[in-house]
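Appendix B, record 7
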Amino acid sequence: ILPNGQQRTGRELKGQFQTDVLGVNRYRFTDVRGDVRWTPEVLAVTDSRANAYGGAARFSYRMAPLNEKGVTPKASFDVHYDGIDLLTLSDLFQLEGITLAGRISGRHLLEWPIRRYRDHTGKGNAQFTPPDESVLMSREMPLERIAARAARN
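Structure tokens (predicted):
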């Protein structure tokens, strides 16, 4: 008997998955793999990873509690990514007039009640790394750059 008084039915699906390519619409990921466990109480995808746009991603997905009377199950998707190529993303997102360069790494967590994604919440962070040859703008401009600009005019 489970803590909420329900009895376990004994059904469980668990295993590992792997595919060379996985995608939805224009999004494509390669070397996707992970673990899945599905019982009457929970669906959990764990220890999952993929190659993503020149970088790597780790992710998990969870729906629980399932089949608990009077309780709306919640879903969560948690992704950690590292070294994603921004130029590839610029092409994917078809950003008119904007071309990003460098790499992005970060984490994002989305949570929502099942069948009510409009009520989702999320949090995350991202770190951008510019290409090696980039000169980043700061509050102060070096005198050489001011002189070069004046010479062009």
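Remarks on this record: Residues 143-152 form the longest helix (10 residues). The radius of gyration is 22 Å.
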